[in-house]
Amino acid sequence: MLSGIVLLLFFSNQFISNWAMNQWEPDVKSFSSIPTYEWGIVLTGVTNLNKEVNDRTFFNKGADRATHAIQLYKLGKIKRILITGGVGLNPQSPFAEAALLKNVMVIAGVPEEDIVLEGKAKNTRQNALFTKEILDQMQIPTGQKHLLITSAFHMRRSKGCFDKVKINTDTFPVDYYGHSNKYDIPSLLYPDPYAIFKWQKLFNEWVGITMYKIVGYV
Question: What are phi and psi of 3, to 5 degrees?
Fold first, then answer.
């Protein structure tokens, strides 16, 4: 019982979980530091496919993947956008996530002709493989560098998968779970279930990247 209480206090501590997340997530990159890329590659996994509706897109946490891609486009940092992602583990959904994100981007003013969709991928490995197929079909030079846009906690695995299939990318992490450290009483002492959720995201990613290394995906 004592061990259980100690573990609960540790994993529910806001300061510790936030510190661990900050160690894992790459640093924020300012928009001004980004050069111009021909292609921005956006990974999906941020929409709520369980809610069936035909006239809008419901986002989970992670909408930064779409909104920051739009901002990069509007700032002239990326000239075209390739969105990769199908229905994931929810085959009941009639819409690929890539198409849902495209709808939002078009509404936000990105011309439809500047968006290319890959709507089959179900995981990060397939995101890289199927994106490679599209780039090869368009005869994009292998050495051309693209901007990879996905959640900060997921960037290491994503970058590894794209490197494995020889897609040359720089990274633009978004959708941060970590925040600036706070040294107040609530952060240091008050248990918080969201702290446990952060650990769950970390452990899930650590297991995922370990398995991807074992099977040779990264």
Answer: -60, -40
Range of the domain at 90: 27-178
| Under-70 pLDDT residues of the chain | 88-94
For the entire predicted model, the pTM comes to 0.91
**Does residue 186 form part of some domain?**
no
Number of domains in the chain: 1
Q: pLDDT at position 33, please? A: 95
